[in-house]
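User: quick one, fold this
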Amino acid sequence: MKYSSDEVLRIWRRMQLRLRILLVFLLLAPSLELDRGPFSGTIVVIGSSQNEIVIAADSRILISGRPQDDACKIRSLSKTMVFAAAGIAGEGLRAKPIWSVFAEAQDAFENVHRRLDPASGSSELMATARRWKDSVEADLRDMIRRYPKSVAELETDEITTGIFAGIREDGTLAYVSVVLLYRNRSSGDHSPVIESKLTEIARTTNGWELHPYGDTAVWKEMQEGLTERSKLAIDQLTMLSKGTDHSVVESMAVRVAELTVAYSVDGKVGGDVDAVAVDITGFHWIRRKSTCA
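Assistant:
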């Protein structure tokens, strides 16, 4: 069969177009596949006193190792309860994830709030944290089966941490930390072992304390006080500690998060610091990005 020169040219152009489409697909496919894997957050700092609980968090989230500094890691579940998370925060595309710690927290709260009997004496805060734990444990197991490499390079056993802070039924302030741990040595190829540690902390005495979760390397450096920058950080925190009880908790929690962003060199921490406070009247934002609800 013979083709005219015009026909040959048309065939050649169609082949070029198909090759361009194939090339674009090949270039985008790895990125699309990577974005469907797990995404993770980094640092959350809790400051607590008898009168207030403060949560401060950075804005960096890692998607297949690529940083984005627009994450909102603190979410309100109700007028009296807030949630924050560090570590692996979900899986899939951020806009439409397969699952996320934030969606699981909202679902846990709504289920507990709807079904908890006030006469049972159970804490809504603890019940919400336990339900979240069960759901996220299952999510993590499924994720590890799909993406075993997602936990291959973990520096610690801590894979995800959830923080629930709010007002208990007796009117006192408390927060529950849920630390989920991946036990690599006990896990099989298709049977990942996830363990958990739940701790409820209610401050009923004067004074205050700080507790960072997630990427705590900078905090540990500040505690040791051996480097010049850690000594500078200690001086700053010492000055802040001389304020009133109310201002100390807020200022210290925010500053520790800021110092972690400034001093971190592993690329896991970054962006603006958001912060929220919970007291007996409910919660209020201390600072937040305009894109965070």
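User: anything notable?
Assistant: Residues 20 and 216 are 46 Å apart (CA to CA).
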